[in-house]
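Q: Convert this sequence to structure tokens.
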Amino acid sequence: MGGEQSLERLIRGFQQLDPVTGGQGFIKALGYADFALLITPNNDFYRKADWFKQRLSQRMNYDELVQAQLFTESLLAEAANGSDGEF
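A:
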């Protein structure tokens, strides 16, 4: 449950502000939402993450969607390696 809450906070937070760029971080928000869909066994959280993913996807162009997919893949790779590093 804690991991799901953390992911939801990341998804919501990056929609408002990416601390690195100072603007909205739709690419990272979508990447975290997609990552959540791939790893969660919780149906309620899955529906919530899917809702975020659908709304974010509608706002983004093709290149941004590709960047978000690459970000999701990097999150999956780090999770598979058991990395404690920052995402």
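The two ends are 19 Å apart (CA to CA).
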